Amino acid sequence: MSAIATAAALSLPISLSCASKFSNKRCVRGGFGVFAVLGEEGGLVERKNTWTIFNVEDPRSKVPQYKNKFLDANQALEVARYDLQYCDWKARQDVLTIMHLHEKVVEVLNPLAREFKSIDTLRKELAELQEELSLAHNQVHISEARVSTALDKLAYMETLINEKIVQERNTTDAELSLATPSTSTESLETVKNRQPKRNLNVSGPVKPYDAGLKNFWYPVAFSADLKNDTMIPLDCFEKPWVIFRGKDGKPGCVRNTCAHRACPLDLGTVNEGRIQCPYHGWEYSTDGKCEKMPSTKFVNVKIKALPCFEQEGMIWIWPGDDPPTANIPSLLPPSGFQIHAEIVMELPVEHGLLLDNLLDLAHAPFTHTSTFAKGWSVPSLVKFLTPQSGLEGYWDPYPIDMEFKPPCIVLSTIGISKPGKLEGQSTKECTTHLHQLHVCLPSSRQKTRLLYRMSLDFAPILKHVPFMEYLWRHFAEKVLNEDLRLVLGQQQRMIDGENVWNWPVSYDKLGVRYRQWRDSVDRGSKRLPFTKSP
Ligand code: FES
Ligand SMILES: [Fe+2]
After folding, report:
1. Residues 27 and 109 reside in one and the same domain
2. How many Cβ atoms sit within 10 Å of the Cβ of residue 436?
3. d(CA 57, CA 37)
4. ipTM of model
5. Which of 170, 245, 433, 463 is found 20 to 30 A from 16 (Cα to Cα)?
């Protein structure tokens, strides 16, 4: 990656010459610039101090010298790092100044000293000190603002770099498409149109689902909820389906509409592996074939059935028209965890909005004030870091790992060794963990079937506590309701034309990537961003 930077000289703090954080303008070739001028002259008067926190070296002499050079991304980040070091050093110096001034005030007010000074002299000295203190306090405020600006710039640079990575991946995608011109009817214009949108626009009524989004395996139910003689009705991509077990115990998924006169089949019963319509008793097997047609001459009739499999305690369907892929992903928690709750909820929101919400942790201290985030402080900066691949990573400063698993799954592991005090730790530092699985099945354009599974790597006894599952459900619903009222409000505004991704910031990284992934699916891209295979 090459980022073009104009480095006139080094500035502390650095200034992005390309744009402020509120602008989306780009430099030449989509790079970003670092503009720098010489640091502040002079400095604070040397003072003796015995406090180790003030024994921090002035970083200005070690600032990397990039004057009149093009900086790549790493160099630009190095400059930003020095900028923060300088802010840190300066803030310490400011505090030291205030401490010295306080010492002087104490000296002036010393009752022993007062004997030798007139009241007027005392007044004068105190007034001077007050003035100095006021200036020092102002200096602290300036330092605070400087730190905040430096952090904002760092976050902005991170966003630019991430966008650049996505842009490069998509350029490769476009180049691959252009590599076969003799067979491709796509014009350059079409390829250009397939570039990711720089600004996300998710507004207006949800568009009809693209066929590409259906060509995935979708978990639709927990195995434990499907007994031999029961059935589970569900909507998927605006079509009604019903799952039940055949004679061999294997699950099947058929259209929940009788071929005779469109009666919902789930109002009937399951007998010997066949679902019976409650209206005139037609019976269907798990492959959709009508096998019984009482009181009339039998004719061959079939209702639509979807590929359906059971794996690791979940039932999966393939709603797309393409042939299903061979592998169904594993959603089990890591070894050492035990499943404590499996909950299903039908929610009146579009599944993308729910995913946006689940992929965002920065909202917790504002939204979940009655549940898990009660008493959380608001960190000065929340970040999502993605060290492994584009759709998984961890939250800083929270000990929470998170992954978006296409097409609609969120996995998260939360370190909870210190309940209520989550900041400043990583999941590895915590001794106990909670693992969560959220599946957001697109039932319709305003409805989601949510599958939630919670596992713990401690307190296995809880599994045997009577009525514990009701308690887990109560807690899960309480947390979800805190989100739901907000997401419902967003949905209404989105339908009315507002963009729910109007102004993404650094902690929105995972949500933005989900939207970029989904945009690519909707555009029919062969290579999807952030994934190794389509
Ligand atoms: S509508 Fe189902 S059997 Fe008549
Ligand atoms: Fe939430």
Report:
1. yes
2. 19
3. 21
4. 0.97
5. 170
277 lines ligand 1 (CB under 6 A): yes
Q: Residue 242 Cα, ligand 1 centroid: separation in angstroms?
A: 15
Higher pLDDT, 174 or 254: 254
Q: How far is the CA of 484 from the centre of ligand 2 (A)?
A: 8
Same structural domain, 405 and 280: no
Q: Tens of pLDDT along 360-386?
A: 999 999 999 998 888 888 999 999 998
Indicate whether 86 belongs to any domain. yes
Residue 216: per-residue pLDDT: 97
CATH number at residue 452: 3.90.380.10
Residue owning the nearest CA to atom 4 of ligand 1 = 280
- In percent, how much of the chain has pLDDT > 70? 72
Q: 30-39: string of b/e by CB count within 10 Å (b at 16+)? A: bbbbbbbeeb
358 domain-assigned: yes
Q: Please tell me whether residues 259 and 351 are part of one structural domain.
A: no
Query: Does ligand 1 have an atom closer than 6 angstroms to the CB of 278?
Result: no
Ligand 2 geometric centre to CA of 362 (Å): 9
Give the structural domain span for 397.
Answer: 340-507
pLDDT band at 457 (very low <50, low <70, confident <90, very high): very high
pLDDT in tens, 484-498: 999 999 999 999 999
Please indicate whether residue 279, judged by its CB atom, sits closer than 6 Å to ligand 1: yes
Statement to judge: residues 389 and 296 lie in one domain? no
Tell me the CA–centroid distance for residue 13 and ligand 2, in Å.
35
Residues with CB under 5 A from ligand 2 (ion): 483
pLDDT in tens, 400-449: 999 999 999 999 999 876 555 555 567 877 888 999 999 999 999 999 99
Nearest CA to ligand 1 atom 3: 280
Domain count along the chain: 3
Q: Using a 6 Å cutoff on CB, does residue 258 contact ligand 1?
A: yes
Can you tell me the distance from the alpha carbon of 396 to that of 427, in angstroms, rounded to the nearest whole number?
A: 11
Whether residue 166 has pLDDT greater than 50: yes
Task: Count other C-beta atoms under 10 Å from residue 126's C-beta.
Answer: 14
Residue 185 has pLDDT above 60, yes or no: no
| SS3 category, 430 | coil
CATH number, residue 261: 2.102.10.10
Looking at the domain assignment, is residue 441 inside a domain? yes
Residue 204 in any domain: the answer is no
Q: Which of 372, 483, 476, 457 is nearest to 421 (CA)?
A: 372
The whole-angstrom separation of Cα 346 and Cα 106 is 66
Q: Whose CA is nearest to atom 1 of ligand 1?
A: 261
Atom of ligand 1 nearest to the CA of 259: 2
For ligand 1, whether the C-beta of 301 sits within 6 Å is no
Q: Clarify whether residues 387 and 435 are in a common domain.
A: yes
- List, in sequence order, every residue forming a beta bridge with 253; answer none if it has no partner: 243, 306
